[in-house]
Specification:
8-stranded mixed beta sheet; two-stranded antiparallel sheet; 10 strands; alpha/beta
């Protein structure tokens, strides 16, 4: 009797539960891959935008000078000197002081430090006119273009971080550089005046250099970061989340550490040398509260010598233009008290 084999081949079909697990695994891997790709794209875009903002932040077209001290009837000499440490060749001019008897003098010299994205003549802030007024009151003036400004070589804008070296280079020039007017000799005393970024830079430089015997700070910031947090998104028309990425990119690309641009951390080191803080009461760019913060920090030092002047109705860097002769008289009185009279003034 014939028999039928009972052998049957195993089934190749997958159970519904196993197939579901495989499909879910493939879906999860696909989702993770998509998320990683999106993350990579977003990170790349964030870095690219941050790098672009960084470049726009530190490099700006340099403004030409609109006039020279000759337009004010003053004698002057063009000068070139190196910044301290990195030796960038800075351009400026030296204006001798004019004494009441008409003689020229260099005994008391004021280093003038301009603001951001401008130059030593700065028409908007009236810097050339102020330099002339100071000179006509018997004080010599060294006004110069910081790196990346005016006639000085292009360089990244660092809002004081590197520009401190430019102010210190100006001191070195006055103390040991070629004499613009050999017959007048070297200054007996050096002081500084700065506006906006120039004032912040001057504070940080004076904290390191005791040869700067007095400081006038007009509308300085206490800390640049809150201003950048406001201005970078406004200027780039981008969300605020890109700001700190741009600041870190600036640090990585150009060595500029904006987080260290904090005059409030240095100002107490100027004591016992006198400092006069001036700030426009209507300043909409650097809030007037910055003057209070700086003055409080300055007064924390033993033997601090601090004066403040809130100028009614003055907007940013407009205190001189608003007050005119009152402004000049006030800073001349301050410098005279700090540096003493000129011995040839009689």
């Amino acid at each position: 009797m014939s028999s039928r084999s009972s052998f049957e081949a195993p089934s190749t079909s997958t159970s519904p539960s196993l197939a579901g697990k495989n499909n879910a695994g493939r879906g999860a891997r696909l989702l993770v891959t998509i998320l990683l790709i999106i993350s990579a794209i977003l990170i790349t875009a964030y870095v690219a935008i941050s790098l672009y903002i960084s470049t726009q932040l530190v490099y700006v077209p340099q403004k030409p000078l609109y006039a020279t001290p000759a337009s004010l009837g003053l004698k002057f000499q063009y000068v070139t000197f190196p910044s301290r440490d990195d030796h960038i060749q800075l351009r400026g001019w030296f204006i001798p002081g004019v004494l009441p008897n008409g003689n020229l003098t260099a005994q008391r010299t004021i280093i003038m430090v301009h603001g951001t994205r401008t130059n030593r003549a700065d028409k908007d802030a009236g810097l050339l006119n102020l330099s002339g007024a100071i000179a006509k009151n018997g004080f010599a003036v060294l006004a110069f273009d910081m790196r990346g400004s005016g006639e000085s070589p292009p360089a990244p804008l660092s809002l004081g971080y590197f520009e401190q070296r430019d102010v210190l280079g100006a001191v070195d020039f006055l103390r040991s550089g070629p004499l613009p007017y050999p017959e007048l000799g070297r200054p007996r005393a050096i002081a500084g005046w700065g506006v906006s970024m120039g004032a912040a830079t001057l504070i940080m430089a004076a904290a390191q250099e005791p040869a700067i015997r007095a400081v006038v700070s007009d509308c300085a910031y206490a800390d640049i970061i809150p201003i950048l947090e406001r201005e970078v998104p406004r200027g780039g028309h981008l969300p605020a989340l890109f700001t700190h990425g741009a600041l870190l990119a600036t640090w990585a690309l150009y060595g500029v550490n904006f987080y260290a641009d904090r005059p409030v951390d240095f100002v107490a080191q100027i004591a016992p040398r006198p400092i006069l803080f001036i700030h426009g009461a209507a300043d909409k760019y650097i809030p007037p509260s910055n003057m209070d913060i700086l003055a409080t920090a300055a007064r924390s030092a033993p033997k601090a010598n601090v004066q403040t002047w809130s100028v009614p109705g003055a907007d940013h860097a407009q205190s001189f233009n608003t007050q005119g002769k009152v402004y000049v008289d006030r800073i001349i009185a301050f410098y005279t008290a700090a540096l003493g009279p000129d011995s040839g003034a009689a």
